[in-house]
């Protein structure tokens, strides 16, 4: 990990973020807590997640350019997001990071960076 670079650049830019998202969603769809939250056609979700994470990780503002301000908590309010689901989401991301070969300390740094937003989306006890 090069601390002078963004997460986006440390992951390898667009290709790295795309690889992460492509690894992540098959894992999510196998998770009994998370799979019911997603539509049968997952590709639009994958594309939006790619755009969001590119932006969130310090790359181009793809999500904002396409959809406006992310307002991610508001966009997730119609889903029952529990602490358990936030933790399951992070566990799936952990698996995806491992699957694509992201090494320490970048691996842990990404999980820590995503932990705040994942728990911020919690809206159901």
From TrEMBL:
<dbReference type="Pfam" id="PF01152">
    <property type="entry name" value="Bac_globin"/>
</dbReference>
<keyword id="KW-0349">Heme</keyword>
<dbReference type="InterPro" id="IPR044203">
    <property type="entry name" value="GlbO/GLB3-like"/>
</dbReference>
<comment type="similarity">
    <text>Belongs to the truncated hemoglobin family. Group II subfamily.</text>
</comment>
<keyword id="KW-0408">Iron</keyword>
<protein>
    <recommendedName>
        <fullName>Globin</fullName>
    </recommendedName>
</protein>
<dbReference type="InterPro" id="IPR012292">
    <property type="entry name" value="Globin/Proto"/>
</dbReference>
<keyword id="KW-0813">Transport</keyword>
<keyword id="KW-0479">Metal-binding</keyword>
<dbReference type="InterPro" id="IPR001486">
    <property type="entry name" value="Hemoglobin_trunc"/>
</dbReference>
<dbReference type="InterPro" id="IPR009050">
    <property type="entry name" value="Globin-like_sf"/>
</dbReference>
